[in-house]
Amino acid sequence: MPNHRLCRRLFVLAAVLFLTAITAGCGKSKPSAQVPAQTEQQHTAALAKEAELPHQETASKPNPSDPSCRDERSIEESERNRAACFHLRPGVTTTKVVKVPAKTAKVTKTSTKKGQKTAVPKAAIQKTKVVQTTGRCQPQSLIYARCRTGFMTCRLGDTSPVQWFACAKKNNSTSATPVTGSVIVLDVNTRRGMPTGHPAYVEAIKKNHDGTWTLRISHTNYDRKCHLDLDATVLFDPKRMTASFATGPWGPWAKDLKALGFILR
């Protein structure tokens, strides 16, 4: 009888140990396939964050052989600056009183004793006049073009557009072919009130079948009041180096304006 009870106890103990071993083995087998996958994903995300690149897909790089191609960052900066670069600030008018140089008047008198005429100077009366001076409005055309492009080259003080182009040309930063994101510089035209030339930002370009280019440009101070003209259409002829405005405030008259070329980064 005692042997029978002992056998039963040993059998129950063996069964419990067997079930415990099976349960422990199954518990370890389930997560083994998931842990490495989670670790790899976290590791990839960490590397991408460290490199400051999106870990889903890599941004495409511009084609260096295409001069009209710009990278995404340049386009984003230009679009952001499109709104940020223009805030009309009219010129401040100052008024002051200035003295006008007065001429000494001479009054002729006749001498009763000798009957001779003599000129006697009369005291000069000081005169003044009111002078009003209006400062330049902002942004001027060159300042706007620099802001849109980020081109800070050839800063020679109060640089004119033609001076900027001449300096950029010495630095091999100009082109006779339009490039998106460049600055077209129109030559001096005193008849049209452009004694220092005029720059405009090139928003987009399109080559035509006849070899000309259709440009979409934006510029300010076209009316000497710093107003903004956005997305004007300009026909550029590279053979004659001329620009003709088809739309915008200059559309009715700005035809065959001499162009120096385009300033690049």
Layout of secondary structure:
Elements: H1 2-29, H2 35-51, H3 72-84, E1 93-100, E2 106-110, E3 117-121, E4 127-134, H4 141-149, H5 161-170, E5 174-175, E6 183-186, E7 198-207, E8 213-220, E9 228-237, E10 242-245, E11 257-263
Antiparallel strand pairs: 1-4, 2-3, 5-11, 6-7, 6-11, 7-8, 8-9, 9-10, 10-11
Q: Can you walk me through this structure?
A:
The protein has five helices and eleven strands, in the order αααββββααβββββββ. It is α+β, with helices and mostly antiparallel strands and 265 residues long. The chain has a domain at 141-263: endopeptidase fold (from Nostoc punctiforme) (Alpha-Beta Complex), CATH 3.90.1720. A six-stranded antiparallel beta barrel has the order 6-7-8-9-10-11. A two-stranded antiparallel ribbon has the order 1-4. The termini are far apart. Mean pLDDT is 78; it is low at 25-41 and 43-68.
Describe what is shown at a glance.
It contains 5 helices and 11 strands, in the order αααββββααβββββββ. It has a domain at 141-263: endopeptidase fold (from Nostoc punctiforme), CATH 3.90.1720. It has helices at residues 2-29, 35-51, 72-84, 141-149, 161-170; strands at 93-100, 106-110, 117-121, 127-134, 174-175, 183-186, 198-207, 213-220, 228-237, 242-245, 257-263.
